[in-house]
Design goal:
This protein is mainly β. It folds into three domains: 3-95, no CATH class; 105-121 and 149-229, Translation Initiation Factor IF3; 233-280, no CATH class. Helix content is 4%, strand content 47%. The chain has two helices and 20 strands. It has helices at 43-47, 170-177; strands spanning 3-8, 14-19, 24-36, 58-61, 65-79, 86-95, 111-122, 125-127, 133-136, 150-164, 180-182, 194-207, 213-225, 231-234, 236-237, 239-242, 249-252, 263-264, 277-281, 285-287. The strands form seven sheets. Strands 1, 2, 3, 4, 5 and 6 form a six-stranded antiparallel sheet that branches. The two termini are 64 Å apart.
């Protein structure tokens, strides 16, 4: 397409200053008359012409007037009449809130939210006032229960939201901390009591007053607190060591009528009236949470 003539129409540009309760904005409309050299030219070809402001281009007029926060948001091209070579092109610019905010989002305070999570879990044993297992639940005849009761287990969750540099290696961050327990004291919790549940990352962009974009990352860290993340389990199985006390082979537990059964073990491989509690065992990797440089209290 060859433009033979382009002219800005009378009354263009037209500026509107919008003042709302929450936001102040400016909109500008420019109108052009443009002549092409072929009846076969369509609106897409007209709008692609270099003489028409491009999409997202900032506002410039007369060689001296410009506003970098005003950017093209829409463009329309309409043929004046059927088979005419003249087109009317309208270009709309708009800017959102343009307060003089030069603040660096990386300096924003860390947001901290505490909540509680709950779930129903199987209760295999009674515990003392400190939560330490004491007595395994058995029938009055010393057998394992057919259906164990359930109980509610609750734990505290802390979420930290912090703005960080775009260059932050979030993959390394996730690989190091997600599903790791603390190797150091974290929010007064001793080693092994806190697990990093999740790290969420969102790319953000702040537009500065000069129209430039400042990209950064909003990262959310989620930690779950328990008395311990170690695992314990009941010592039960279908085999036991034999002979008793000096076992060098195994025998199957059987019912009185000779059918296979699950029996209680004493923690050393021998039968017992009730199962021993084995463990605790560490099932999570560890990491030093202090290297994240997150606040250490609500007062931080």
């Amino acid at each position: 397409m060859t433009v033979t003539f382009r002219n800005e129409l009378p009354g263009s540009p037209e500026l509107t200053h919008n003042t709302g309760i929450e936001e102040t904005s400016i909109t500008v409309r420019r109108r052009f008359s443009l002549y092409s050299d072929s009846i076969n030219d369509g609106p897409a070809e007209v709008l692609s012409n270099a003489s028409i402001p491009a999409a997202r281009e900032y506002y410039q007029y007369g060689g001296t007037e410009q506003h970098t926060l005003l950017k093209v948001i829409s463009r329309t091209a309409t043929r004046q009449e059927k088979n005419a070579l003249e087109w009317i092109v309208e270009v709309d610019y708009e800017t959102a809130d343009y307060d003089d905010d030069w603040s660096n989002p990386l300096n924003d305070p860390v947001e901290i939210v505490m909540s509680t999570e709950k779930e129903q879990v199987t209760a295999f044993w009674a515990v003392n006032s400190s939560g330490v297992p004491t007595t395994v639940f058995l029938t009055s005849a010393g057998e394992a229960l057919e259906n164990y009761p359930t109980k509610q287990k609750s734990w505290a969750v802390l979420e930290f939201t912090r703005n960080e540099a775009l260059a932050t290696n979030v993959i390394a961050l996730a690989n190091t901390y997600i599903d790791a327990t603390n190797a150091d004291t974290f929010w007064t919790a001793t080693a092994g009591q806190v697990r990093c549940d999740d790290i969420g990352v969102e790319r953000m962009v702040k537009q500065l007053p000069d129209g430039t974009d400042f990209p950064y990352l909003k990262i959310k860290y989620r930690f779950a607190f328990r008395d311990s993340w170690l695992l314990s389990y009941l010592d039960k199985g279908s085999y036991y060591l034999y002979p008793i006390g000096v076992g060098s082979s195994t025998r199957k537990f059987k019912t009185e009528d000779g059918n296979p059964a699950i029996g209680n073990l004493d923690g050393t491989g021998y039968p017992d009236t009730e199962p021993a509690i084995l463990g605790p065992f560490n099932i999570y990797k560890t990491a030093t949470f202090g290297t994240l440089s997150l606040p250490t209290s609500f007062a931080s």
